[in-house]
Amino acid sequence: MAANQKRLIPQRFQDRYMRSIAPLVRLFTRWGVSPNALTAAGVIITSFAAIAFFLQSPRWGGFLVLLGGLCDSIDGSLARNSGKASRFGALLDSSVDRYAEFAMLFGIGAFFLLTRDYISSAGTFLALCGSFMVSYTRARAESLGFTAKVGIMQRPERIVFLGAGALIHPAALQIAIWMVAVFSNYTALQRLRFAFKQDAAPPPRSEENPTLKTVPAAKGQP
């Protein structure tokens, strides 16, 4: 079953972005930078972004969110390019991404609370729920043998929308947080629906000719 690849940031733009940072990946490979160290740097930078939001400096927060996202987009390519890819590294990357996303949304929620924007702080809670459900539905579906890497708002979209929104203006951040709140939860439902379709699909027919069953001869027959 083919996956629906419709996303808020089209795949061709993401492919162009990955090609644009390829020289940086090769440079880090020559320097011997550890992919796990880059993964850790991403979550540390995003934690500083949360502090910036808490201190009511949304533009600094947005800049650091995008910088942390850059580290996250490089570490996987760096691991493959340097021959250091491992199953633990993939697990560490996925786990750290969840902590980074929690820190980012915690900081944004604190910013809205401190500015008495309680409606947007509620939207941040919904965005947090949706973000974690997007990752959970994929992980749970794949553990059951389904494929579930679908949806219009995945992690790159969340990072770009929130980071760019904070850089532009607090009003743009308000719009971005509600987009993440709505579309991340919708993406989780998309993944559930995609897994349901796989489970409901009929099994493929075997092309082999069925073996003819032999009937034992009755007594008295030659």
Throw out a few tags for this protein.
single chain, 222 residues, mainly alpha, Four Helix Bundle (Hemerythrin (Met), subunit A), 8 helices, globular, disordered C terminus
In short:
The protein is mainly α and 222 residues long.
Largest sheet: none
CATH architecture: Up-down Bundle
Number of contiguous helices: 8
CATH topology: Four Helix Bundle (Hemerythrin (Met), subunit A)
Fraction of residues in helices?
Answer: over 70%
Describe the structure.
It contains eight helices and no strands. It is mainly alpha-helical. The chain has a single domain (11-196), classed as CDP-alcohol phosphotransferase transmembrane (TM) domain (Four Helix Bundle (Hemerythrin (Met), subunit A)). The longest helix has 31 residues, at 170-200.
